[in-house]
Specification:
CATH architecture of the largest domain: 3-Layer(aba) Sandwich
Cofactor: FAD
Helix content: 10-25%
Largest sheet: 6 strands, mixed
Number of helices: 12
Oligomer: single chain
Number of domains: 4
Number of strands: 28
Strand content: 25-35%
Shape: globular
CATH class of the largest domain: Alpha Beta
Structural class: alpha+beta
Radius of gyration: 24 Å
Protein name: Cytochrome b5 reductase 4
Main location: endoplasmic reticulum
EC number: 1.6.2.2
GO cellular component, one term: endoplasmic reticulum
């Protein structure tokens, strides 16, 4: 049996029965034997024991990275290999962020704070290919402290900055292209929970305004914590979590719920379109994480009046699997309980929408979730758009998420066409039937004009997405015209 056949056999290759976990350095080090070998590559941990006998370089080569971070070794030997696809069935989880060790850095602050990013903290690759060095400064009034971040980029917006502060710990992550600029400080004085963030897009400046608890003058901002004032490739950063409170839960279909989580007042987080976060829950003594794409509260504004400001809560459409490990536990949460939510991840760029004329969306089941924000954005913020077409695959009519809203939105905006395709419909169903196929796609994917700029987004179970991408290539859509969502 070759490796590809083994990965498709349904055998549990991780030994974790489908769970994804956060892996500490201490835990990773324990798995350093041939029959129990975990390796970390770019922050993701894989159980490569089942792959040992299939590795072209032999077992000894893999064992060089056993129980450790093998990213550098991997890049030296075969950086070109698509390990994410090859080892996806071996994925154990992500590396956990180590807690910061607090020190008194008052003297060091004079060297590090309020200045340019030290070159020693930027890799040669970033210096040559990445963005210009960001920097930051701070100033104060009697009642306020303002931290100003100078990104030196003009494509910065409120989605680009994530702020968390608890007690005296202040953390601001700024997404700059494919890098993350981190400000991480133990503040010298206490501040209020509430704060404001504003962005001057024309110059790439971010201002975070904190309210002092006492109207006294600060001699210094604080002491640097782990990775403070560093510019790091996003692929090399661990996930940071904050606890969010469940404030509502409602049925959408017979097995899908709409969860609403409220961010802490001390957090600013807006998940960019097309990106996902990880939800984390403690289950049977282990912290389990699962990726989910946030959605809007509804497709139509009149469906729901938000009870909180838009930037303070996050919605998720989640299918509950009765025999699953994570979703039944999530479904058992009571209003007021807490769920840990990570910072966002994903490689979708909103620049793909520039001058877009035709947008095609292919979704299966809860693969519809990334399409929600894309639909809202496309119909309101892309002036060049001529047509949006959604083909939504489900098993039965009862499985269709937000069918009524989709139909009302299509009636309201004539640029939108929605087609439902069912694989197991009742005899009275008059719509399309079957699975994703050349016949369905060739009829559906017709450009408005021969040379119009087009984008096809696809999301669903892995077999659906892989088959769909192959069919799109067969229909002569280029790689740049296709975006597949995977987590």
């Amino acid at each position: 049996m070759d490796w590809i056949r083994l990965t498709k056999s349904g055998k549990d290759l991780t030994g974790l029965k489908g769970r994804l976990i956060e892996v500490t350095e201490e835990e990773l080090k324990k798995h350093n034997k041939k029959d129990d070998c975990w390796i970390c590559i770019r922050g993701f941990v894989y159980n490569v024991s089942p792959y040992m006998e299939y590795h072209p370089g032999g077992e000894d080569e893999l064992m060089r990275a056993a129980g450790s971070d093998g990213t550098e070794l991997f890049d030296q030997v075969h950086r070109w290999v698509n390990y994410e696809s090859m080892l996806k069935e071996c994925l154990v989880g992500r590396m956990a962020i180590k807690p910061a060790v607090l020190k008194d850095y008052r003297e060091e602050e004079k060297k590090v704070l309020n200045g340019m990013l030290p070159k020693s903290q930027v890799t040669d690759t970033l210096a040559k290919e990445g963005p210009s060095y960001p920097s930051y400064d701070w100033f104060q009034t009697d009642s306020l402290v303002t931290i100003a971040i100078y990104t030196k980029q003009k494509d910065i917006n409120l989605d680009s900055i994530i702020v968390d502060h608890q007690n005296d710990s202040f953390r601001a992550e700024t997404i700059i292209k494919d890098c993350l600029y981190l400000i991480h400080i133990g503040l010298s004085h206490e501040v209020q929970e509430d704060f404001s963030v504003r962005v001057v897009e024309s110059v790439g400046k971010i201002e975070i305004v904190l309210q002092k608890k006492e109207n006294t003058s600060w001699d210094f901002l604080g002491h640097p914590l782990k990775n403070h004032n560093s510019l790091i490739p996003r692929k090399d950063t661990g996930l940071y979590y904050r606890k969010c409170q469940l404030i509502s839960k409602e049925d959408v279909t017979h097995d899908t719920r709409l969860f609403c989580l409220m961010l802490p007042p001390s957090t600013h987080l807006q998940v960019p379109i097309g990106q996902h976060v990880y939800l984390k829950l403690p289950i049977t003594g282990t912290e389990i994480v699962k990726p989910y794409t946030p959605v809007s509260g509804s497709l139509l504004s009149e469906f729901k009046e938000p009870v909180l400001p838009n930037n303070k809560y996050i919605y998720f459409l989640i299918k509950i699997y009765p025999t699953g490990l994570f979703t039944p536990e999530l479904d058992r949460l009571q209003i007021g309980d807490f769920v840990s939510v990570s910072s966002p991840e994903g490689n979708f760029k909103i620049s793909k929408f520039q001058e877009l004329e035709d947008l095609f969306l292919l979704a299966a089941g809860t693969g519809f979730t990334p399409m929600v924000k894309i639909l809202n954005y496309a119909l309101t913020d892309i002036p060049s758009l001529r047509k949006v077409k959604l083909m939504f695959f489900n098993k039965t009519e009862d499985d269709i998420i937000w069918r009524s809203q989709l139909e009302k939105l299509a009636f309201k905006d004539k640029r939108l066409d929605v087609e439902f395709v069912l694989s197991a419909p009742i005899s009275e169903w008059n719509g399309k039937q079957g699975h994703i196929s050349p016949a369905l796609l060739s009829e559906f994917l017709k450009r408005n004009l021969d040379k119009s700029k087009v984008l096809v987004c696809i999301c669903g179970p892995v077999p659906f997405t892989e088959q769909g991408v192959r069919l799109l290539h067969d229909l002569n859509f280029s790689k740049n015209e296709i975006h597949s969502f995977t987590a």
